[in-house]
Amino acid sequence: MAIRYLSEHDSPDDPGGLIREVLQMGDEFPGPAEDVILAWILRLGQDRDPAEAAQRLVDDYHLNDDMLPGGACGRLIAMVKETAAYPAQRMTRHLCQPRRRGGWRRNRPQTDKP
After folding, report:
1. What percentage of the chain carries pLDDT values higher than 90?
2. Which among 84, 76, 40 has a CA at the least distance from the CA of 59?
3. What would you report as the CA-atom Rg of the chain, rounded to the nearest whole angstrom?
4. What is the DSSP-derived secondary structure letter of residue 16?
5. Measured between alpha carbons, how far is 9 from 79 in angstroms, rounded to an integer?
6. Does 6 have pLDDT greater than 90?
């Protein structure tokens, strides 16, 4: 069950209109942007890919058109763009790569100890 917040800016890609409200605040947004991004991702739900939703927000809110504003609002826009750059396929491919196992003890020369 997803929690829905009533807002005139509510959309499937921006539940509750959270991102849009921050963008409207502009330089007056005190931050922190990280908290807003986390809340936005949690509101999206498990069945939505954050990267796809972020890319649609970049397109819908024209976030590529202007230079980034300063402060927390600019940080939020940068984080939305960064989220759009990492689709689920890219994340799972990165996380599923095998890791090196062993360490320095495994690779050191063997000495015969009685």
Report:
1. 21
2. 84
3. 21
4. G
5. 20
6. no
Distance between CA atoms of 70 and 111, rounded to whole angstroms?
60
Helix, strand, coil percent content, the chain, rounded in steps of 5: 55, 0, 45
Element (H, E) at 79: helix 71-84
Length of the chain: 114
C-alpha to C-alpha distance for 65 and 68, rounded to whole angstroms? 9
Cβ atoms of residues 43 and 100 within 8 Å: no
**Burial degree of 73 (CB within 10 A; 0-12, 13-18, 19+):** buried
pLDDT tens readout for residues 83-98: 998 876 655 555 555 6
Task: Supply the angle between the helices 33-44 and 50-60 in degrees, to the nearest 10.
Answer: 110
Query: pTM of the full predicted structure?
Result: 0.68
